[in-house]
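Researcher: Structure for this, please.
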Amino acid sequence: MPELPEVTAIADFLDERTAGLPIRRVDVASLAVLKTADPPYTALVGRTVSSVGRIAKYLVITTVLETDDEPLHLVIHLSRAGWVRWSENLSPRPPKPGGKGPIALRVHCGLPGEGFDVTEAGTQKRLAVWVVRDPLDVERIAGLGPDALGLGRDELAEILAGTTSRIKNVLTDQRVIAGIGNAYSDEILHRARLSPFATAKGLSDAQIDALHTAIGEVLRDAVSRLEGPGGVATMKAEKRSGLQVHARTGLPCPVCGDTVAEVSFADRSFQYCPTCQTGGKKLADRRMSRLLK
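Model: Predicted structure, token format:
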């Protein structure tokens, strides 16, 4: 799933290529991705991309029209399997509506053939697109917690003091802290040497310091890596190459050499290092526990 570092890098990549370009056409291959009808997506045609940024895990493409001071925003949430692909050879033929291909949305901007596809792999279609006058018109954005990269140490301490949830759940709840998902929460907790099952309210001052430092270091390091010369095309591989524990079950921890362990649930799993994070203790694997009953 694209998280804050990937969305930041994608936003910068698109901003570099599209800012100042007119939108010539918008093709919607899957009407299910559109979550708004007013303004219609066709209202983007003829407008100019002024900037591309992000709010948490949401891409925000801001467009302007010379005769209208009010901007329109194309907001995209890539969900679990969404991605953005820039091309200078887009087909002039619109993608087939309701087709089985990965393309959900195509935006033609700039010269003929230039633009980008928004794609979604797999069968679970969760990608979402909004056209709004204000990003806060998107209910999900209006309900977000503070951005992870802008989170101060005292603000983090206040958040943690107000909940008895496990720290893994706190980090990934977008209503509490925005931008962190499953992968980077694993990396942050490993860097901070904290158990994913630790109770947020029970963290010591030293542990809060370590967690706050880890959030900033892990996310900024990831953004720096992902904004390399390869761009969007190499971003997924670059992300994998920088992970210490996430998706590395059974491999040695790069810090201590212990074997990276996993806890599995029905639709997700997370990874951790027993030596670095849990005093050598293996956490109960929920999936295996059910099988053994």
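Researcher: Any notable elements?
Model: The two ends are 32 Å apart (CA to CA). Residues 288-293 have pLDDT under 50 and may be disordered.
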